[in-house]
Amino acid sequence: MGMLIEQNLLEQHNAGLLAGLNADYAALAGMLSRRGVDIETLTAHAQVFSVALPSWGAGTGGTRFARFPGKGEPRNVFEKLDDCAVIHQLTRATPGVSLHFPWDKISDTAALRETAHSYGLYFDLVNSNTFQDQAGQEHSYKYGSLTAVSAAARAQAVEHNIDCIELGRALGSQGLTVWIGDGANFPGQNNLRASLERYLDSMRSIYAALPADWQVYIEHKLFEPAFYATTIADWGTSFACAQQLGPKAKCLVDLGHHAPNTNIEMIVARLAQFGKLGGFHFNDSKYGDDDLDSGSINPFQLFLVFNELADAAAREGASFKTANMLDQSHNVTDPIESLMSSAVEVQRAYVQAALVDRVALRGFQESNDALQAAQTLKHAFRTDVSPILAMARWRSGGAIDPVAAYRHAGYRAKVAQARPAKAGASSSGIV
Ligand code: PSV
Ligand code: MN
């Protein structure tokens, strides 16, 4: 086992904050009870929330221009797991880790699985990568992967995805996310219809290799690296492909993969309605696929997404589930701090959505009272549920204030000693 934060440091941190938390919690409990809401139900709800961590998010990200590595970055997948374990230790909300191959490829999957289990972590969806060429690879993806005109490049990309399924299976994962950068930079470069036909053809081979209890998640993205026409650019294309492929194919919504001002919560509602909402990559953005920390720019949008998820769960019951992950790039912060804060922001939206008075909302909708309907949502969104989140963490053995506890423990300085920078380390950074 690696370097979890010492229990006594965590307890010291919590001890200093507990009286204040109890007072804030009691005040909020009183306020909520006047609204007919039982705080304990919400706290229990917060305790069952989880969002998976992207292994690649543990390293400092970069932009097209530069990457400024931080001290003590993880240099391999085991060190990424160590960092993920600390994030889960403090937040108690991130037991899943989503790996990305070949960035995280290792030969000893049993050792990796054992390390994860020793930390109480499991492997969530695995991600394939055919948006880059890898050393020694026979066919280039410069002109596409699953959609390439070259049958050999397509076959190689399909093979890689099938390898990912096998690796994922050995690690106990149950799903594969496929995002491709394929598309065109010039009008006329690709035959738009033929590219999608080739995509479907490739995906059928990947779909056929899915184990019985697996799903494949199609991730759309408007643009980048293809700046004129991306093959899987939008939820319409992803939905159509998922329909064509069959019941094990679902759509994955990365919040940053839409044009500015797109109504993402409506996409969520549509996909849920037609049984094709598979999961999320949570992050935030201002302009494009900025991969900023979840909830840092537009927390109301995040809340509205969770409001749709709560609506879907209320309609469909326990069978309604989505695979939720963070997918962010941390350029100017310590990645562990960003991932912890982001997990808490996503959890906040989840709890706020549970606070929406759905009976009142339906009443306002049915009487066409637009103002009160909007106020009903705002009322939940404006409620500061921080004491609920902190109490949920504390009761689950985590930190009342994860970032403060992390800093108090001096984790980054300690791992910086143990992890001198290594050339060619797989610290990631491409998102
Ligand atoms: C693409 O921008 C993306 O969102 C996909 O999920 C990739 O797998 C990920 O970023 C990491 O590069
Ligand atoms: Mn993504």
- Mean of the pLDDT scores? 96
Number of helices: 15
Q: Would you list the SSEs in sequence order as H and E?
A: HHEHEHEEHEEHEEHEHEHEHHHHHH
Described by strand count, sense and barrel closure, the largest sheet is: 6 strands, parallel
Specify the helix fraction band: 40-55%
Bound molecules: alpha-D-psicofuranose, manganese (II) ion
Question: What structural class do the secondary elements suggest?
Answer: alpha/beta
Strand order of the largest sheet: 4-5-7-9-10-11
Number of strands: 11
For this structure, the quaternary state is single chain
Rg over CA atoms, rounded to whole Å, is 22 Å
Overall 3D shape? globular
**Unreliable residue runs:** none
- C-alpha end-to-end distance: 29 Å
Strand residue percentage: 5-15%
